[in-house]
Amino acid sequence: SGAARPRLAFLGTGYLGATYAICFAELGYEVLGFDVDEAKIAKLAGGAVPFHEPGLDELLRRNLAAGRLRFTTDYKETADFADVHFICVGTPQRADGMGADLVYVEAAVTGLAQHLTRKALIVGKSTVPVGTAEWVEQLVGKHAPADLGIEVAWSPEFLQEGFAVEDVLRPNRIVIGVKSEWANAMLYASHKGVFDLAATEDREVPLVVTDFATAELVKVAANAFLATKISFINAMAEVCEVAGGDVTQLARSIGYDPRIGNRFLQAGVGFGGGCLPKDIRAFQARAQELGAGEALRFLHEVDLINLRRRTRVLQLAAELLGRRSGPAGPDLSGTRVAVLGATFKPNSDDVRDAPSLAVAALLAKAGADVRVYDPEGMENAKVAQPDLAYEPSMNDAVRGADLVCVLTEWADFRNADPVALGELAAGRRVIDGRNCLDSALWTHAGWEYRGM
Ligand code: UGA
Protein backbone atom coordinates (compact mmCIF):
# COMPACT_ATOMS: atom_id res chain seq x y z
CA SER A 1 0.00 0.00 0.00
CA GLY A 2 1.16 3.57 -0.56
CA ALA A 3 -0.06 6.98 -1.50
CA ALA A 4 -2.91 5.67 -3.69
CA ARG A 5 -5.02 4.36 -0.81
CA PRO A 6 -3.07 4.61 2.42
CA ARG A 7 -4.17 2.50 5.34
CA LEU A 8 -5.10 4.66 8.30
CA ALA A 9 -4.72 4.19 12.03
CA PHE A 10 -6.32 6.42 14.64
CA LEU A 11 -4.60 6.27 18.03
CA GLY A 12 -6.91 7.16 20.87
CA THR A 13 -10.53 6.14 20.31
CA GLY A 14 -12.15 8.78 22.44
CA TYR A 15 -14.63 11.12 20.94
CA LEU A 16 -12.29 12.42 18.24
CA GLY A 17 -10.46 9.24 17.26
CA ALA A 18 -13.49 6.95 17.24
CA THR A 19 -15.49 9.37 15.11
CA TYR A 20 -12.64 9.77 12.62
CA ALA A 21 -11.92 6.03 12.46
CA ILE A 22 -15.55 5.22 11.77
CA CYS A 23 -16.11 8.01 9.26
CA PHE A 24 -12.92 7.31 7.30
CA ALA A 25 -13.91 3.64 7.05
CA GLU A 26 -17.22 4.88 5.72
CA LEU A 27 -15.30 6.84 3.08
CA GLY A 28 -13.77 3.54 1.93
CA TYR A 29 -10.41 3.50 3.74
CA GLU A 30 -9.07 0.48 5.55
CA VAL A 31 -8.93 1.67 9.14
CA LEU A 32 -7.58 0.50 12.47
CA GLY A 33 -8.58 2.14 15.74
CA PHE A 34 -6.12 1.83 18.61
CA ASP A 35 -6.58 2.53 22.30
CA VAL A 36 -4.89 1.40 25.51
CA ASP A 37 -8.34 1.09 27.11
CA GLU A 38 -9.37 -2.53 26.60
CA ALA A 39 -12.98 -1.99 27.63
CA LYS A 40 -13.39 0.83 25.11
CA ILE A 41 -11.85 -1.25 22.33
CA ALA A 42 -14.03 -4.25 23.18
CA LYS A 43 -17.11 -2.06 23.04
CA LEU A 44 -16.22 -0.53 19.69
CA ALA A 45 -15.25 -3.91 18.22
CA GLY A 46 -18.62 -5.19 19.40
CA GLY A 47 -20.43 -2.44 17.48
CA ALA A 48 -21.24 -0.03 20.33
CA VAL A 49 -20.10 3.60 20.38
CA PRO A 50 -19.07 4.41 24.00
CA PHE A 51 -20.55 7.93 23.85
CA HIS A 52 -23.63 9.59 22.41
CA GLU A 53 -23.24 10.87 18.88
CA PRO A 54 -26.16 10.90 16.42
CA GLY A 55 -25.67 8.56 13.45
CA LEU A 56 -22.35 7.08 14.55
CA ASP A 57 -23.60 3.68 15.82
CA GLU A 58 -25.03 2.76 12.46
CA LEU A 59 -21.83 3.71 10.62
CA LEU A 60 -19.75 1.72 13.09
CA ARG A 61 -21.76 -1.46 12.60
CA ARG A 62 -21.86 -1.10 8.84
CA ASN A 63 -18.10 -0.68 8.52
CA LEU A 64 -17.27 -3.44 10.99
CA ALA A 65 -19.47 -5.74 8.93
CA ALA A 66 -17.80 -4.58 5.70
CA GLY A 67 -14.42 -5.52 7.19
CA ARG A 68 -12.93 -2.08 6.59
CA LEU A 69 -12.73 -1.21 10.27
CA ARG A 70 -11.02 -3.01 13.13
CA PHE A 71 -9.91 -2.12 16.65
CA THR A 72 -6.89 -3.10 18.70
CA THR A 73 -4.95 -2.41 21.89
CA ASP A 74 -1.70 -3.57 20.28
CA TYR A 75 0.90 -0.99 19.24
CA LYS A 76 2.76 -3.51 17.10
CA GLU A 77 -0.35 -4.42 15.13
CA THR A 78 -1.01 -0.72 14.59
CA ALA A 79 2.56 -0.07 13.47
CA ASP A 80 2.39 -2.99 11.02
CA PHE A 81 -0.99 -2.02 9.65
CA ALA A 82 -1.01 1.65 8.76
CA ASP A 83 0.79 4.03 6.42
CA VAL A 84 -0.62 7.07 8.18
CA HIS A 85 -1.08 7.21 11.95
CA PHE A 86 -3.33 9.91 13.38
CA ILE A 87 -2.71 10.82 17.02
CA CYS A 88 -6.12 11.54 18.54
CA VAL A 89 -5.49 11.13 22.27
CA GLY A 90 -6.70 13.59 24.86
CA THR A 91 -4.76 16.65 25.98
CA PRO A 92 -6.38 17.44 29.33
CA GLN A 93 -5.86 20.55 31.38
CA ARG A 94 -2.77 20.21 33.56
CA ALA A 95 -3.19 19.92 37.29
CA ASP A 96 -2.01 23.53 37.65
CA GLY A 97 -5.16 24.51 35.75
CA MET A 98 -3.53 26.26 32.83
CA GLY A 99 -1.39 24.45 30.26
CA ALA A 100 -2.17 21.25 28.38
CA ASP A 101 -0.92 17.91 29.60
CA LEU A 102 0.87 15.99 26.84
CA VAL A 103 1.45 12.67 28.65
CA TYR A 104 -0.98 10.80 26.41
CA VAL A 105 0.53 12.25 23.25
CA GLU A 106 3.96 11.18 24.46
CA ALA A 107 2.76 7.67 25.34
CA ALA A 108 1.03 7.15 22.00
CA VAL A 109 3.92 8.46 19.91
CA THR A 110 6.63 6.52 21.74
CA GLY A 111 4.48 3.37 21.97
CA LEU A 112 3.94 3.46 18.23
CA ALA A 113 7.34 4.68 17.07
CA GLN A 114 9.36 1.83 18.56
CA HIS A 115 7.31 -0.75 16.65
CA LEU A 116 7.46 0.85 13.21
CA THR A 117 9.18 -1.23 10.56
CA ARG A 118 8.63 0.83 7.40
CA LYS A 119 8.26 4.43 6.33
CA ALA A 120 5.10 6.00 7.74
CA LEU A 121 3.56 9.34 8.54
CA ILE A 122 2.53 10.32 12.06
CA VAL A 123 -0.11 13.04 12.07
CA GLY A 124 -1.09 14.96 15.17
CA LYS A 125 -4.77 15.81 15.52
CA SER A 126 -5.14 16.44 19.23
CA THR A 127 -5.44 20.05 20.36
CA VAL A 128 -1.97 21.00 21.60
CA PRO A 129 0.20 23.97 22.48
CA VAL A 130 2.01 25.41 19.50
CA GLY A 131 5.43 23.78 19.23
CA THR A 132 4.18 20.26 19.98
CA ALA A 133 4.65 19.02 16.40
CA GLU A 134 8.37 19.83 16.57
CA TRP A 135 8.60 18.02 19.89
CA VAL A 136 6.76 14.99 18.45
CA GLU A 137 9.28 14.97 15.61
CA GLN A 138 12.11 14.77 18.15
CA LEU A 139 10.32 12.00 20.05
CA VAL A 140 9.94 10.02 16.85
CA GLY A 141 13.60 10.60 16.08
CA LYS A 142 14.48 9.18 19.45
CA HIS A 143 12.18 6.14 19.44
CA ALA A 144 11.71 5.03 15.82
CA PRO A 145 14.41 3.13 13.92
CA ALA A 146 16.46 5.89 12.27
CA ASP A 147 16.69 4.38 8.79
CA LEU A 148 12.92 4.35 8.21
CA GLY A 149 12.57 8.07 7.61
CA ILE A 150 9.38 8.40 9.64
CA GLU A 151 7.80 11.83 9.11
CA VAL A 152 5.48 13.98 11.17
CA ALA A 153 2.64 16.28 10.14
CA TRP A 154 -0.13 18.19 11.87
CA SER A 155 -3.80 18.34 10.91
CA PRO A 156 -6.19 19.93 13.39
CA GLU A 157 -9.86 18.98 13.51
CA PHE A 158 -12.86 21.19 14.03
CA LEU A 159 -15.67 18.77 14.76
CA GLN A 160 -18.53 19.79 16.95
CA GLU A 161 -20.19 17.27 19.24
CA GLY A 162 -23.66 16.46 17.99
CA PHE A 163 -22.60 17.17 14.38
CA ALA A 164 -19.42 15.11 14.36
CA VAL A 165 -20.28 12.73 11.51
CA GLU A 166 -21.19 15.60 9.20
CA ASP A 167 -18.16 17.61 10.30
CA VAL A 168 -15.78 14.75 9.46
CA LEU A 169 -17.40 13.67 6.18
CA ARG A 170 -18.15 17.22 5.04
CA PRO A 171 -15.64 19.52 6.75
CA ASN A 172 -15.63 23.22 5.91
CA ARG A 173 -11.86 23.08 5.48
CA ILE A 174 -8.85 20.81 5.88
CA VAL A 175 -5.67 22.27 7.30
CA ILE A 176 -2.37 20.42 7.15
CA GLY A 177 1.04 21.41 8.46
CA VAL A 178 3.81 19.56 6.63
CA LYS A 179 7.53 19.74 6.00
CA SER A 180 7.85 17.63 2.86
CA GLU A 181 6.17 16.89 -0.45
CA TRP A 182 5.89 13.26 0.57
CA ALA A 183 3.97 14.14 3.75
CA ASN A 184 1.78 16.49 1.75
CA ALA A 185 0.99 13.77 -0.81
CA MET A 186 0.29 11.18 1.91
CA LEU A 187 -2.10 13.52 3.70
CA TYR A 188 -3.80 14.44 0.47
CA ALA A 189 -4.29 10.75 -0.28
CA SER A 190 -5.57 10.23 3.26
CA HIS A 191 -8.25 12.84 2.67
CA LYS A 192 -9.02 12.04 -0.95
CA GLY A 193 -12.24 10.34 0.13
CA VAL A 194 -13.41 13.64 1.62
CA PHE A 195 -12.55 15.59 -1.53
CA ASP A 196 -14.18 12.96 -3.75
CA LEU A 197 -17.39 13.01 -1.72
CA ALA A 198 -17.47 16.80 -1.99
CA ALA A 199 -17.02 16.59 -5.78
CA THR A 200 -19.98 14.25 -6.14
CA GLU A 201 -22.05 16.77 -4.21
CA ASP A 202 -20.79 19.72 -6.20
CA ARG A 203 -18.99 21.20 -3.22
CA GLU A 204 -15.39 22.09 -2.64
CA VAL A 205 -13.44 21.55 0.55
CA PRO A 206 -10.76 24.22 0.90
CA LEU A 207 -7.34 22.78 1.66
CA VAL A 208 -4.75 24.86 3.49
CA VAL A 209 -1.21 23.51 3.34
CA THR A 210 1.00 25.27 5.84
CA ASP A 211 3.78 24.92 8.41
CA PHE A 212 3.58 23.14 11.76
CA ALA A 213 3.11 26.23 13.92
CA THR A 214 0.30 27.65 11.82
CA ALA A 215 -1.53 24.33 11.67
CA GLU A 216 -1.35 24.04 15.45
CA LEU A 217 -2.41 27.63 15.98
CA VAL A 218 -5.38 27.47 13.60
CA LYS A 219 -7.13 25.12 15.96
CA VAL A 220 -6.76 27.14 19.15
CA ALA A 221 -7.35 30.40 17.29
CA ALA A 222 -10.67 29.07 15.97
CA ASN A 223 -11.80 27.97 19.43
CA ALA A 224 -10.61 31.24 20.99
CA PHE A 225 -12.63 33.15 18.42
CA LEU A 226 -15.76 31.09 19.09
CA ALA A 227 -15.37 31.51 22.85
CA THR A 228 -14.88 35.25 22.38
CA LYS A 229 -18.01 35.47 20.26
CA ILE A 230 -20.07 33.78 22.96
CA SER A 231 -18.61 35.91 25.75
CA PHE A 232 -19.12 39.01 23.65
CA ILE A 233 -22.84 38.37 23.41
CA ASN A 234 -23.00 37.44 27.09
CA ALA A 235 -21.32 40.74 27.93
CA MET A 236 -23.97 42.48 25.82
CA ALA A 237 -26.56 40.52 27.81
CA GLU A 238 -25.19 42.00 31.02
CA VAL A 239 -25.51 45.49 29.59
CA CYS A 240 -28.95 44.78 28.12
CA GLU A 241 -30.14 43.62 31.48
CA VAL A 242 -29.32 46.87 33.27
CA ALA A 243 -30.33 49.02 30.30
CA GLY A 244 -33.62 47.24 29.67
CA GLY A 245 -32.61 45.84 26.26
CA ASP A 246 -33.29 42.46 24.71
CA VAL A 247 -30.07 40.60 23.89
CA THR A 248 -31.80 38.08 21.62
CA GLN A 249 -33.06 40.83 19.34
CA LEU A 250 -29.73 42.58 19.57
CA ALA A 251 -27.90 39.40 18.52
CA ARG A 252 -30.28 38.87 15.63
CA SER A 253 -29.85 42.44 14.50
CA ILE A 254 -26.06 42.51 14.51
CA GLY A 255 -25.95 39.01 13.05
CA TYR A 256 -27.55 40.13 9.79
CA ASP A 257 -24.27 41.85 9.01
CA PRO A 258 -22.40 39.09 7.17
CA ARG A 259 -19.13 40.40 8.61
CA ILE A 260 -20.48 39.46 12.04
CA GLY A 261 -22.71 36.50 11.17
CA ASN A 262 -25.58 35.20 13.25
CA ARG A 263 -24.08 31.97 14.62
CA PHE A 264 -22.53 31.54 18.08
CA LEU A 265 -24.32 34.63 19.34
CA GLN A 266 -26.70 32.80 21.65
CA ALA A 267 -26.53 34.46 25.04
CA GLY A 268 -27.17 32.30 28.08
CA VAL A 269 -25.35 30.46 30.81
CA GLY A 270 -22.18 30.39 28.72
CA PHE A 271 -19.85 27.89 27.12
CA GLY A 272 -18.60 24.66 28.60
CA GLY A 273 -17.45 21.30 27.31
CA GLY A 274 -14.13 19.59 26.91
CA CYS A 275 -12.72 22.15 24.49
CA LEU A 276 -13.48 25.87 24.62
CA PRO A 277 -12.83 26.49 28.35
CA LYS A 278 -9.64 24.46 28.53
CA ASP A 279 -8.38 25.60 25.15
CA ILE A 280 -8.54 29.31 25.94
CA ARG A 281 -6.68 28.71 29.20
CA ALA A 282 -4.00 26.56 27.60
CA PHE A 283 -3.62 29.07 24.77
CA GLN A 284 -3.00 31.89 27.24
CA ALA A 285 -0.47 29.80 29.13
CA ARG A 286 1.41 28.96 25.95
CA ALA A 287 1.40 32.55 24.71
CA GLN A 288 2.79 33.58 28.08
CA GLU A 289 5.60 31.04 27.78
CA LEU A 290 6.42 32.38 24.34
CA GLY A 291 6.48 35.97 25.58
CA ALA A 292 3.20 37.01 23.94
CA GLY A 293 1.03 36.83 27.04
CA GLU A 294 -0.22 40.36 26.56
CA ALA A 295 -1.68 39.51 23.16
CA LEU A 296 -4.08 37.04 24.72
CA ARG A 297 -4.88 38.87 27.92
CA PHE A 298 -8.42 39.47 26.59
CA LEU A 299 -9.02 35.71 26.76
CA HIS A 300 -8.83 35.99 30.53
CA GLU A 301 -11.73 38.43 30.33
CA VAL A 302 -13.57 36.06 27.97
CA ASP A 303 -13.21 33.38 30.65
CA LEU A 304 -14.39 35.69 33.44
CA ILE A 305 -17.47 36.85 31.52
CA ASN A 306 -18.28 33.21 30.88
CA LEU A 307 -17.92 32.15 34.52
CA ARG A 308 -19.95 35.18 35.68
CA ARG A 309 -22.96 33.76 33.82
CA ARG A 310 -23.05 30.88 36.26
CA THR A 311 -23.20 33.06 39.35
CA ARG A 312 -25.77 35.24 37.57
CA VAL A 313 -28.17 32.28 37.53
CA LEU A 314 -27.67 31.91 41.26
CA GLN A 315 -28.48 35.61 41.79
CA LEU A 316 -31.57 35.33 39.58
CA ALA A 317 -32.69 32.29 41.55
CA ALA A 318 -32.38 34.20 44.81
CA GLU A 319 -34.32 37.13 43.36
CA LEU A 320 -37.12 34.93 42.08
CA LEU A 321 -37.32 33.02 45.34
CA GLY A 322 -37.31 36.24 47.34
CA ARG A 323 -34.04 35.47 49.13
CA ARG A 324 -31.53 38.15 50.04
CA SER A 325 -27.86 37.69 49.29
CA GLY A 326 -25.44 37.95 52.22
CA PRO A 327 -21.67 38.30 51.92
CA ALA A 328 -21.48 34.53 51.47
CA GLY A 329 -24.05 34.62 48.66
CA PRO A 330 -27.75 33.86 48.85
CA ASP A 331 -29.29 31.42 51.29
CA LEU A 332 -31.63 29.11 49.40
CA SER A 333 -32.26 26.63 52.19
CA GLY A 334 -35.79 25.30 52.32
CA THR A 335 -36.30 25.78 48.59
CA ARG A 336 -36.53 23.12 45.95
CA VAL A 337 -35.04 23.75 42.52
CA ALA A 338 -35.40 21.65 39.36
CA VAL A 339 -32.34 21.81 37.11
CA LEU A 340 -33.22 20.72 33.58
CA GLY A 341 -30.07 19.84 31.67
CA ALA A 342 -26.75 18.41 32.81
CA THR A 343 -24.79 18.22 29.54
CA PHE A 344 -22.78 21.17 28.24
CA LYS A 345 -25.06 21.36 25.22
CA PRO A 346 -27.95 19.39 23.76
CA ASN A 347 -27.56 16.23 21.62
CA SER A 348 -24.56 15.15 23.64
CA ASP A 349 -24.01 13.13 26.79
CA ASP A 350 -20.88 15.11 27.62
CA VAL A 351 -20.92 16.84 31.00
CA ARG A 352 -17.31 18.09 31.03
CA ASP A 353 -17.21 21.61 32.43
CA ALA A 354 -20.97 21.85 31.83
CA PRO A 355 -22.39 25.22 32.97
CA SER A 356 -25.62 23.41 33.90
CA LEU A 357 -23.95 21.09 36.41
CA ALA A 358 -21.79 23.92 37.75
CA VAL A 359 -24.93 25.98 38.40
CA ALA A 360 -26.66 22.98 39.98
CA ALA A 361 -23.70 22.66 42.36
CA LEU A 362 -23.85 26.39 43.18
CA LEU A 363 -27.57 26.16 43.95
CA ALA A 364 -27.01 23.12 46.15
CA LYS A 365 -24.16 24.87 47.94
CA ALA A 366 -26.51 27.78 48.64
CA GLY A 367 -28.78 25.32 50.44
CA ALA A 368 -31.39 24.51 47.79
CA ASP A 369 -32.75 21.00 47.40
CA VAL A 370 -31.66 20.53 43.78
CA ARG A 371 -33.16 17.88 41.47
CA VAL A 372 -31.37 17.34 38.18
CA TYR A 373 -32.70 15.71 35.03
CA ASP A 374 -31.08 15.32 31.60
CA PRO A 375 -32.25 13.23 28.61
CA GLU A 376 -28.79 11.74 27.82
CA GLY A 377 -26.30 12.93 30.41
CA MET A 378 -27.49 11.29 33.62
CA GLU A 379 -24.86 8.57 33.82
CA ASN A 380 -21.97 10.92 33.24
CA ALA A 381 -23.47 13.57 35.52
CA LYS A 382 -23.77 11.12 38.40
CA VAL A 383 -20.07 10.39 38.09
CA ALA A 384 -19.05 14.05 37.77
CA GLN A 385 -21.33 15.38 40.53
CA PRO A 386 -22.23 12.43 42.75
CA ASP A 387 -23.53 14.65 45.55
CA LEU A 388 -26.44 16.07 43.56
CA ALA A 389 -29.90 14.48 43.51
CA TYR A 390 -31.09 13.12 40.17
CA GLU A 391 -34.63 12.40 38.96
CA PRO A 392 -35.58 9.93 36.24
CA SER A 393 -37.72 12.34 34.20
CA MET A 394 -38.44 16.01 33.61
CA ASN A 395 -41.78 15.67 35.38
CA ASP A 396 -40.16 14.07 38.43
CA ALA A 397 -37.62 16.87 38.62
CA VAL A 398 -40.26 19.59 38.34
CA ARG A 399 -42.74 18.00 40.76
CA GLY A 400 -42.76 20.04 43.96
CA ALA A 401 -40.12 22.53 42.73
CA ASP A 402 -40.29 26.19 43.74
CA LEU A 403 -38.13 27.12 40.77
CA VAL A 404 -37.28 25.51 37.44
CA CYS A 405 -33.94 26.27 35.74
CA VAL A 406 -33.58 25.26 32.11
CA LEU A 407 -29.80 25.13 31.62
CA THR A 408 -29.34 23.00 28.49
CA GLU A 409 -31.57 23.67 25.51
CA TRP A 410 -32.73 20.10 24.81
CA ALA A 411 -35.75 19.91 22.48
CA ASP A 412 -37.65 18.08 25.27
CA PHE A 413 -37.38 21.20 27.42
CA ARG A 414 -37.99 23.73 24.65
CA ASN A 415 -41.14 21.86 23.64
CA ALA A 416 -42.34 21.16 27.18
CA ASP A 417 -45.89 22.19 28.00
CA PRO A 418 -45.73 24.97 30.64
CA VAL A 419 -49.37 24.37 31.61
CA ALA A 420 -48.76 20.71 32.47
CA LEU A 421 -45.47 21.52 34.24
CA GLY A 422 -47.18 24.32 36.15
CA GLU A 423 -49.52 21.77 37.68
CA LEU A 424 -46.57 19.75 38.98
CA ALA A 425 -44.47 22.62 40.31
CA ALA A 426 -44.93 24.05 43.79
CA GLY A 427 -44.13 27.54 42.50
CA ARG A 428 -44.30 28.74 38.91
CA ARG A 429 -40.91 30.36 38.58
CA VAL A 430 -38.61 29.62 35.69
CA ILE A 431 -35.10 30.71 34.71
CA ASP A 432 -34.42 30.25 31.03
CA GLY A 433 -30.66 29.84 31.15
CA ARG A 434 -30.41 29.42 27.39
CA ASN A 435 -33.04 31.91 26.25
CA CYS A 436 -34.64 28.96 24.51
CA LEU A 437 -38.21 28.99 25.83
CA ASP A 438 -41.21 30.82 24.43
CA SER A 439 -41.50 33.40 27.21
CA ALA A 440 -45.03 34.48 26.16
CA LEU A 441 -46.26 30.90 26.41
CA TRP A 442 -44.76 30.38 29.86
CA THR A 443 -45.94 33.74 31.15
CA HIS A 444 -49.42 33.00 29.83
CA ALA A 445 -49.38 29.70 31.75
CA GLY A 446 -48.80 31.67 34.95
CA TRP A 447 -45.02 31.35 35.25
CA GLU A 448 -42.79 34.12 36.46
CA TYR A 449 -40.19 33.99 33.67
CA ARG A 450 -36.57 35.22 33.68
CA GLY A 451 -34.28 34.92 30.69
CA MET A 452 -30.54 35.52 30.69
C1 UGA B 1 -16.07 23.20 19.92
C2 UGA B 1 -15.93 23.90 18.57
O1 UGA B 1 -17.18 24.46 18.18
C3 UGA B 1 -15.47 22.92 17.50
O2 UGA B 1 -15.30 23.58 16.26
C4 UGA B 1 -14.15 22.29 17.97
O3 UGA B 1 -13.67 21.34 17.03
C5 UGA B 1 -14.37 21.60 19.29
O4 UGA B 1 -14.83 22.57 20.25
C6 UGA B 1 -13.07 21.00 19.73
O5 UGA B 1 -12.14 21.74 20.02
O6 UGA B 1 -12.93 19.78 19.68
P1 UGA B 1 -17.92 21.64 21.03
O7 UGA B 1 -17.10 21.67 22.26
O8 UGA B 1 -18.49 20.35 20.56
O9 UGA B 1 -17.09 22.23 19.78
O10 UGA B 1 -19.12 22.59 21.34
P2 UGA B 1 -19.77 23.91 20.73
O11 UGA B 1 -20.91 23.57 19.87
O12 UGA B 1 -18.73 24.80 20.19
O13 UGA B 1 -20.37 24.55 22.06
C7 UGA B 1 -19.51 24.93 23.13
C8 UGA B 1 -20.29 25.58 24.23
O14 UGA B 1 -20.68 26.88 23.85
C9 UGA B 1 -21.56 24.86 24.66
O15 UGA B 1 -21.61 24.82 26.07
C10 UGA B 1 -22.66 25.71 24.09
O16 UGA B 1 -23.84 25.63 24.85
C11 UGA B 1 -22.04 27.08 24.15
N1 UGA B 1 -22.61 28.05 23.20
C12 UGA B 1 -22.48 27.85 21.86
C13 UGA B 1 -23.24 29.18 23.67
O17 UGA B 1 -23.37 29.41 24.87
N2 UGA B 1 -23.75 30.09 22.76
C14 UGA B 1 -23.64 29.91 21.43
O18 UGA B 1 -24.10 30.78 20.67
C15 UGA B 1 -22.99 28.76 20.96
From TrEMBL:
Swiss-Prot/TrEMBL keywords: NAD, Oxidoreductase
EC number: 1.1.1.22
Keyword Phosphoprotein: no
Signal peptide: none
Pathway: Nucleotide-sugar biosynthesis; UDP-alpha-D-glucuronate biosynthesis; UDP-alpha-D-glucuronate from UDP-alpha-D-glucose: step 1/1
Residue span(s) of domain UDP-glucose/GDP-mannose dehydrogenase C-terminal: 338-439
Pfam families for this protein: UDPG_MGDP_dh, UDPG_MGDP_dh_C, UDPG_MGDP_dh_N
InterPro entries (UniProt xref): 6-PGluconate_DH-like_C_sf, NAD(P)-bd_dom_sf, UDP-Glc/GDP-Man, UDP-Glc/GDP-Man_DH_C, UDP-Glc/GDP-Man_DH_C_sf, UDP-Glc/GDP-Man_DH_dimer, UDP-Glc/GDP-Man_DH_N, UDPglc_DH_bac
Reactions performed catalytically: UDP-alpha-D-glucose + 2 NAD(+) + H2O = UDP-alpha-D-glucuronate + 2 NADH + 3 H(+)
SUPFAM superfamilies: 6-phosphogluconate dehydrogenase C-terminal domain-like, NAD(P)-binding Rossmann-fold domains, UDP-glucose/GDP-mannose dehydrogenase C-terminal domain
Similarity comment: family membership: Belongs to the UDP-glucose/GDP-mannose dehydrogenase family.
Protein name, per record: UDP-glucose 6-dehydrogenase
